[in-house]
Model the fold of this input.
Amino acid sequence: MRRFLPLLLISFFLLSALLIVTIFSSGYADQKNPKNAPVIKIYTTLPLDEITPLTEHYQRINNVNIIISPIKEQDLLKLSEQTTQQADLIIAANQTLQKLAIANVLTPYTSETIDIIPNRFKHSQLLWTGIWYDPVVFAFNSDFYRANQPAITKWSELFLYKDSRIAITDFMADAASANMLFSLASNSHEVDILSFLTQLHKQTVQYAKFMSTPVRMAVMGECDIAITVQSTAIRYAEEKFPIKIVIPTDGTPYSLTAIGIIAKPTINPECGQFINWLLQSTAHKVMQENKLFFVSTNPAVKFNYNSANDIVFINNTKYLSAEQQNKLLDMWLKNVRLVK
Done:
């Protein structure tokens, strides 16, 4: 019997190894091979932390591979036709997609979901569709807000309390802040906007580099009024910091993020399904779970903080070219920002 013991042990180990291999083989056979899954390729100018929570969730529930290529706006606009067609979709600010639409880079797309999106949030020929927006708001230090009534609710009332300290993001440091300037100026005469900016400058304690800085200053008591975007202000409010958020009742600028399908001989059939999903409540929930408090352009998607019906939207209609925008920024810099 001792002579056969080594053979028995070897046979036992071989059978065990065969059984383990069989179990693992059958398990992987039931899984779909990621290499065989459909692929969506996306160019985006957005910060990756704003888009990857959505794409990662979508990949998990739909067995689709999404490849994201981050790119700056100026580089995106310079891409050749051959290079552009290496992707399927572009997600960027609506102004960027508008330029690409004029350059015939995009192809129209519509669906039942897109049909209910308000016209202000989509291209007239459906070459791009806005997926979420972010309005400019006043974020007040709570102590200041309680102590100074009546409350400031309009741009024209920002200087109601002469000792109030205002923080705002430098117009030349951030695209959303620059868009705010262009939009406000579009709805005013040049002399009026210069007068407004001069008065604003007198009470501004800091021109910040980032949109989050004015809100941080407000909650720390370093300023009384922060002019910022709603998504940033809500993040602080959700953390129970002492701020009061007010949407200007006389109208407010907003940043609009949009998506468009790249025109090419064969359109990826996965594109439409992904666009429609971005406009649904599931995608909106994923954003909020990741502290991305943007507002869906789909009126059927509920936003916990306010409704589009509460907002008077102000658009940039005059300062569309780089030359026009640079001229306005230079005017502000020379006549307001650098004046002591």
